[in-house]
Structures are given as C-alpha cells and as structure tokens.
Design a protein that fits this description.
Number of strands: 10
Helix content: under 10%
Distance between the termini: 20 Å
CATH architecture: Sandwich
Largest sheet: 10 strands, antiparallel
Structural class: mainly beta
Oligomer: single chain
Amino acid sequence: MDNLYRVLFLIGLAAGSVFSQTTFYSQNFEGTVDMTASGGGWEFGVPTYASGPTVPEGSKCAGTILNGPYVNSANYILTSPSITLPDSSLINLSFYEWYALESCCDYIYLEIEKNGSGTWNSLRAGLYGSNASWNLNFLISVLTKTQIFDFDLD
C-alpha cells in the first residue's frame, strides 16, 4: 500500500541584500515560472491534494505532485535560474515550505552552485519527516557572483 504522506510544497523564493533591501530574484509561482523542474515530479499551480495545505500567500505554489503523493524512489529537482549577486554581500534567502515525507528514506535538500562550477554545496542539513504547517525560512549567507538554488527531493 502506498503511503499518502509524501509531498513537498514550496511557495515564494526571494534572494535579496540584508543591508540595502535590494531584491535580486523573486518567484511566487502566481505568474510565469522561470525555475527548471527535472525528474518529472515538480508541478506549479493550485494544490488539490486532500491532505495538503492551503497556500499562505496567493493561490499557487511549486509542489511534488499537486494532487497526491509522489512515487517511491523519486528524485525531483527544482532549480532557480542563475541569479547575479554582488560580491561579498550578506544575502537573505527566504521561502515558505510545507512537507510530509517518508521518515525512513526521503529527504529534502537545499543546495547552491556558485559561478557555474558544477559543484553543489548544501545550505542546510537535509530535512526528513513532516512539517504540517507552512514555515517561512530565512537563510542568511555570504554568497558571491552568480548563484543557482536547487531544491532536491530524494
């Protein structure tokens, strides 16, 4: 029997300067989506999954299957476009997330690639289990030049 608790939803991704209040990138999934989804599972729109959450801002989000659970052994990746940031800036990365994952085997990763290096570095430890309410996350980091953010469900 399939478990019905394995879903990840993401709403709103913004990267901006902590000091100057400048926004370098913003995506709220309400209009044109410029993020790249791979692995077949990420969708953009209104979630209709009976056990899923109500979106806290607007009506749309990015999610791994908006109307039900994802399949076992899935590897879904959602990647931002390249974002040019000033050198040595303190950057605030903010986003809402809601997730319910199979606690034994599935994780969510948030990674960054710098300047097209092909090397992805983790911005936080992988998450597992569930978070039944929307959390607004703020990550503050010193980043340089062109960045690409990656949300990976494995």
